[in-house]
Automatic annotation (TrEMBL):
<dbReference type="InterPro" id="IPR001296">
    <property type="entry name" value="Glyco_trans_1"/>
</dbReference>
<dbReference type="GO" id="GO:0016757">
    <property type="term" value="F:glycosyltransferase activity"/>
</dbReference>
<dbReference type="InterPro" id="IPR050194">
    <property type="entry name" value="Glycosyltransferase_grp1"/>
</dbReference>
<keyword id="KW-0328">Glycosyltransferase</keyword>
<keyword id="KW-0808">Transferase</keyword>
<feature type="domain" description="Glycosyl transferase family 1">
    <location>
        <begin position="200"/>
        <end position="362"/>
    </location>
</feature>
<dbReference type="Pfam" id="PF00534">
    <property type="entry name" value="Glycos_transf_1"/>
</dbReference>
<protein>
    <submittedName>
        <fullName>Colanic acid/amylovoran biosynthesis glycosyltransferase</fullName>
        <ecNumber>2.4.-.-</ecNumber>
    </submittedName>
</protein>
Length: 389
């Protein structure tokens, strides 16, 4: 088969989810084509044809020239597909002006004959709901946490057109599947394929401990990750006189806000914002940790929690969406109600008081579950089944 993935960018080498999927499909003899908005990452390790979207958001002269080129494609390269897309959009009662914009903006998606057109994020299918039919391809859409739980909050009914189409859906969690079914999508067209990690990289063999309790989080610095509430919880550890150090690995728009919160809570000596690190650096940091925290307000699933469990760390997570499927409460870690710093503090304190043999059992169970359920080979097989069954 020829499978086209619609993504924001060419996946970087470190982006395990898409990289593993693409390589697995290629190893099984399928051709993978990438439609992207930008092409920042090198493509040499993927060996995929890359088709870039036209740039329609710069100065007016530049945009006008690109629109002219797309109009030429409508007339001479894709007239039949463009007309079919126009008719399908018109049937959905899309206005003439919006219809024309969609036809011009989506010319790059009409350029190839493919078997599957798979939108890697739900939001990337918006305004493109009829493109797959126009080119005679099957349509697939992947929903992640932001697509399903955040974007529709400020964009009501944004998926109403999409949900009326013939689509095969990929989701990260059982909770997300139930959410789609509540919107009238039949369960047989929704496939749960969770993230997976390289269990050869993240393993539990190395462990470097210190007298000070080491707590880690890997997350982009964004309000959705619940980092302010996490800081409030660890500030209560300090008030209890518990000797700890908390390291947040990642970067993002909320860095200055978090720096201020650290100062206000008197945690300058207890908290480090380590910035973005490589996979090897993350592994090294986790090897020195006692506890891993992921107290997100919303989370589709979270690879970082899988990596921490694979290394045998004691994980405490919020009950935000996929996290309660990622970590089994009191079996492979601990799940706490979100947005309640006091509850998080109490759970960390309770964890610290557990007998060492109990900690070891939970850590071992986490390692075994990740190795069995969240390995790259299993994920590749599930994606092959997604397209063929």
């Amino acid at each position: 088969m020829k499978i086209a993935l619609v993504l924001p960018n060419v996946p970087a080498y470190s982006e395990t989810f898409f990289k593993n999927k693409i390589l697995g499909l290629q190893q099984s003899g399928h051709e993978v084509l990438l439609y992207v908005n930008h092409s920042k990452a090198p493509n040499s390790y993927l060996n995929c044809k890359v088709v870039k979207a036209p740039v329609l958001n710069r100065n007016q002269l530049f945009v006008a020239f690109n629109l002219f080129l797309e109009f030429v494609k409508v007339l001479f390269l894709n007239p039949a597909k463009s007309f079919k897309l126009y008719q399908l959009n018109k049937k959905d009662e899309i206005s003439f002006s919006q219809n024309l914009k969609q036809i011009l903006a989506n010319q790059f998606l009409l350029s190839e004959k493919v078997d599957w057109l798979h939108f890697g994020f739900g939001t990337m299918a918006l305004g493109r709901e009829n493109v797959a039919t126009a080119i005679g391809a099957e349509m697939a859409v992947s929903f992640r946490g932001f697509d399903y739980y955040v974007y529709p909050v400020r964009n009501k009914n944004c998926y109403s057109v999409l949900f009326a189409k013939k689509v095969k859906y990929h989701v990260l969690s059982e909770g997300m599947k139930k959410g789609l079914m509540a919107n009238g999508i039949k369960g047989e067209v929704i496939f749960k394929i969770t993230p997976a990690i390289d269990i050869e990289i993240f393993d539990a063999r190395e462990s470097i401990k210190s007298d000070t309790i080491q707590i880690k989080t890997v997350a982009r610095l964004h309000w959705i990750k619940g980092l302010e509430a996490t800081l409030e919880a660890v500030s209560l550890l300090k008030k209890e006189g518990i000797d700890f150090h908390y390291t947040i690995i990642g970067d993002g728009v909320e860095k200055e806000r978090l720096q201020f919160a650290i100062h206000q809570l008197g945690l300058n000596d207890n908290v480090t914002l380590a910035g973005k690190l490589s996979s090897e650096q993350v592994k090294e940091a986790l090897s020195k940790a006692d506890i891993y925290l992921q107290y997100s307000i919303q989370e589709g699933f979270c690879n970082a929690v899988l990596e921490a469990q694979a290394m045998g760390l004691l994980c405490v997570v919020s009950n935000a969406e996929g996290l309660s499927e990622n970590v089994l409460d009191n079996q492979t870690g601990f799940v706490v109600a979100k947005q309640n710093p006091l509850l998080l503090f109490e759970k960390i304190k309770e964890l610290l008081q557990l007998p060492e043999n109990k900690k070891q059992i939970i850590g071992d169970q986490a390692v075994l579950r990740v190795q069995k359920e969240f390995n790259l080979e299993k994920q590749q097989k599930e994606f092959l089944a997604f397209y063929t069954e």
